[in-house]
Amino acid sequence: MSTDESEIVGLLSQIRDLLARLDARAKVDRVGSPSTEGIAASVRAELARGGHAKVELIEVLGISAPTLYGKVNGKYAFSLDELAAAAAFLNTTSLELMEAAVRYDAKRGAAEGVLDPRAAWHIDPWEQPARARRRH
Length: 136
Fold this sequence. Notes:
By secondary structure, the protein is mostly helical.
């Protein structure tokens, strides 16, 4: 085999390995989309791992301090652009942040006695508040 052929074979084996890893990642059992609170928790965890302060994200995301604190505490959702910028700042990917958020949601649902986190979001449109009385 010539050097060109061996380089091509090496590249093809690397591509095959990458495709196998992507296929394995795609087959991961996902319960649902991550919640706002789950994404906020994964961002907080990455901030702590990297030894960063929350205020460092203000300049990175270009938002005000109250908005940042609302997003990091799970009150407001991160946009996809903000999540990508935060992930780049934290030396991770937005996919990894979302996967961590799904794991957080699943763990939180199991701790609350809910096996499927989607069941916690079930909304009955006809359900009355606990204080409601039936009128005669």
